[in-house]
Description:
It is built from 7 helices and 3 strands, in the order H-H-H-H-H-H-E-E-E-H. It has helices spanning 6-10, 20-33, 42-63, 65-75, 86-103, 107-133, 213-231; strands spanning 138-139, 190-193, 205-208. The chain has a 3-stranded antiparallel sheet with strand order 1-3-2, with no helix packed on it. Helix 2 runs antiparallel to helix 3 (42-63) and helix 5 runs parallel beside helix 7. The chain is globular, with a radius of gyration of 20 Å. The relative contact order is 0.17.
Amino acid sequence: MTGDDPFERLGCPRRFRVADEEIRALQRSALARAHxxxxxxxxxxxxxxxxxxxxxxxxxxLRNPIERAAxxxxxxxxxxxxPAPPALLMQSLEWQEAIESARAEGEAPLAAxxxxxxxxxxxxxAELAEAIDGEFVAREGxxxxxxxxxxxxxxxxxHAHAAREEPVRGGGLPARGESxxxHAHAARxxxxxxxxxxxxxxxxxxxxxxxxxxxAALLLTELRQLSRLLExxxxxxxxx
Length: 240
């Protein structure tokens, strides 16, 4: 067990698309195994208490999509925090000014100013999931989808997502599948996560390590900016 790997600690599939309830269920299962009341002596109880705290911390990390994505990128050898493109900084500042101006005008104007930021955040989350996981994530033998994974680069049956026609709004990110200058990380081979039992009891999860690492890293940078805008009571500081 590597103490700094929340995926391993919970036995969680190493992918971005993990439902919050699945993480909570894995947390409950892990906590039940490490419950201090089951320990026979004081030292074992102390160890179980420590393990319980680490399990809860791992679950908190994985329920945060920004942290979950950053861990997956780092584990693939990809910088999870590349500099924000100038176009993204400009758009973020425009949205920040609009939110600040609307804040003094009441709830309705503030909600209207936040709406495009919230909509873009939802788009980025969906695009980030595809950039990290690709369009296919299945258990060994196709147990979750009923089919074997397609060859990389081929579309998966039943996952015909239409490609977006426009680039990421305001972010200056490359079109899906293109690498950004200075972030040309080579695509990793497919791998298996050893020892994952998960909720369905499958022995392992087959996945592409990172479907599009450079794009995923830039989308994660954009997601951080959007989250700061929506969370900061007085606007956020942006990476320069």
